[in-house]
Specification:
mainly beta; 10 strands
């Protein structure tokens, strides 16, 4: 079974939680749209609406390139809160894992995302952001393909 998320065009809904140290988890809802414009080039646009404790929304605009074997990709990302981000990802049999780093930030920020396939239309998502040597926040939830 191959991955549908990222490797095929489509829309995905997201429901989950944003967690920060010493704060109550905040519900997150969103949508992700993936498009392939050329053979190995993709775009991904995500919009997340957060609960009352945070800013109204987070928008992510990716442009990425998949290698010829379909197992590794690199990307640049414009993040509505952090600005420019660069990253890379690996596509395994059951999950897609990516790491990223903020460009031009005063303090070093890095992060990781894991998309674990539950079935062909559902993925569990977990993410973490590290500032310096400390876990700043995490996000977890479920992505469901919109058919």
């Amino acid at each position: 079974m191959t991955h549908r998320f990222l490797l095929e065009p489509g829309s995905w809904s997201f429901e989950g939680y944003w967690l920060e140290k010493n704060k109550i988890p905040s519900q997150v809802r969103g949508i992700t749209v993936i498009a392939w414009k050329q053979e190995n080039w993709f775009t991904l646009l995500s919009k997340f609406i957060l609960g009352d404790n945070y800013q109204d929304e987070i928008v992510l605009q990716y442009k990425g390139h998949l290698d010829s074997e379909g197992k590794y990709y690199t990307y640049v990302l414009q993040h509505s809160l952090w600005g420019r981000v660069e990253g890379e990802g690996s596509i395994g049999p059951e999950s897609i894992v990516q790491c990223y780093w903020l460009i031009g930030a005063i303090q070093r920020h890095t992060g990781f995302d894991t998309f674990y396939r539950l079935d062909e239309h559902t993925y569990h998502f977990s993410s973490g952001i590290v500032a310096g040597h400390h876990l700043k926040n995490t996000m977890e939830g479920t992505l469901k393909r919109q058919i």
